[in-house]
Amino acid sequence: MAEKKQVGIIMGSDSDLSVMSQAMKVLDEFGISYDVDIISAHREPQELFDWGKQAEERDYKVVIAGAGKAAALPGMCAALVPIPVIGIPMKTSDLGGEDSLFSIVQMPSGIPVATVAINGAKNAGILAAKIIAVGDPALMDKVKKYGTSLKEEVKGKNARLHEIGWEKYLEEK
After folding, report:
1. Which residues, listed in sequence order, are joined to residue 64 by a DSSP beta bridge?
2. Secondary structure (3-state) at 63
3. Per-residue pLDDT in tens (0 to 9) along the chain, 173 residues
């Protein structure tokens, strides 16, 4: 029997993969398993319904759904599954991703979608880790260490800025 994955990652188009991979990298860092699927809410509604039915059976703890333009995918996932859904609005060429963002955050009462920034897949991965960590003390330790590492990174940058000055600091970037 195959290992059950903790997160279901779904996107509306393969053009979203480069952004969505940021969530996958974060989940890999935390040792969180996941499945990845490309399913268009508009072009493959039946496949999306079937995927939604299977999500609970697969025992996912969180769904991460990325979509652009009309961005129906995260909301439809939230309507189909009883587990938390994190929506990632994709930057679009037409409206810069605002269309995607508005589509995802304007969910009707009773169908929540946690929404990150436009192209914010890294934060989606972190949020998924935090949600799962609520019931997993070892993962919670990893999440805390990650937060500490961010703090230390900023402290190191500040020390370097003061050491060499802002002009040289910018040159190093």
Report:
1. 9, 86
2. strand
3. 567 899 999 999 999 999 999 999 999 999 999 999 999 999 999 999 999 989 988 999 999 999 999 899 999 999 999 999 999 999 998 899 999 999 999 999 999 999 999 999 999 999 999 999 999 999 999 999 999 999 999 999 999 999 999 999 999 98
For 132, residues 6+ apart whose C-beta sits below 8 A from its C-beta are: 6, 7, 32, 61, 62, 139
The residue with tokens 């019931």 is: 135
Residue corresponding to tokens 């996107």: 11
Q: Is 53 helix (H, G, I), strand (E, B) or coil?
A: helix
Please count the CA atoms within 13 angstroms of the CA of 61 that sit on its side-chain side: 18
Structural tokens at position 115: 């929404």
User: Could you identify the residue written with the tokens 């703890």?
Assistant: 61
